Amino acid sequence: MSRLRSLSTGAWIAIGLVAGSILAPATAVAATSLVGIVGPNNVRAGVTSAGQLRTAEAAPYAFQVYARNGVVSGGCSVITTSVGTKAYIAKQVVFNVYEDPTPGAGDYVALYSDAACSSQPIAVVTPGLVNAWTYPLDPGFAIQAGGGLYAQAFGGVESDVTVYGYTVGATDVPATTPISTPSP
Fold it and tell me: What does the domain layout of the chain look like in residue ranges?
């Protein structure tokens, strides 16, 4: 310890310069190295000014709308017989009821995932009047690749049905979402 105290000022300056030349590059690298999330396309994830990660539910090209005009009472109407080779996540259904001559309990229009419209419905509206009815499907209703969407009206109701959603890889949805609620 006494040897350190006896070092001259010049020796202390030399020790400081050597230590600084060792520590400064490491500090500079640490200060300029940022950790980030980078996607497979080499695009860095965005962050808001509040420090939140910017995310999107799906890429813009994946959004898909299926619509059927003129769903009338009686038969099962095809919206799409197949969502294609990718699976589909339905996020919202709009029933635009334009005819309901005798509103009542037996009047409704429903969205189904089977071609016979005989399974439990995905969404149902019992309109009390002519109007557009929007139903969010959060977190989403999954349709397996190759699956379809169908609609049926009852009791004199006539409606347009539009389904909004997006596609995902076929392996992301091994089966269509099961429904356990009773039908109307």
Answer: 2-32, 60-172
Task: Name every residue whose Cβ is closer than 8 Å to that of residue 31 and which is 6 or more positions away in sequence.
Answer: none
Measured CA to CA, the distance from residue 75 to residue 53 in angstroms comes to 47
List all residues 6 or more positions away from 138 whose beta carbon is below 8 Å from its beta carbon: 91
Res 88: pLDDT: 96
Domain 60-172 class, CATH top level: mainly beta
Model confidence at 53: pLDDT above 80:
no
Cα separation, 18 vs 35, whole angstroms = 30
Residue 78 and residue 163: Cα distance in Å, rounded? Answer: 12
- For residue 41, the model assigns a pLDDT of 76
Amino acid at 33: S
User: Does the pLDDT at position 24 exceed 80?
Assistant: no
Per-residue pLDDT tens digits for 69-120: 999 988 899 999 999 999 999 999 999 999 998 888 889 999 999 999 999 9
Contacts of 7 (CB under 8 A, 6+ apart): 15
- Those residues whose C-beta lies under 8 Å from the C-beta of residue 110, and which sit 6 or more positions away, are 117, 121, 122, 123, 124, 125, 151, 152, 153, 154, 183, 184
- Structure token pair of residue 88: 């589909």
> To 5 degrees, how large is the angle CA 151–CA 155–CA 157?
55
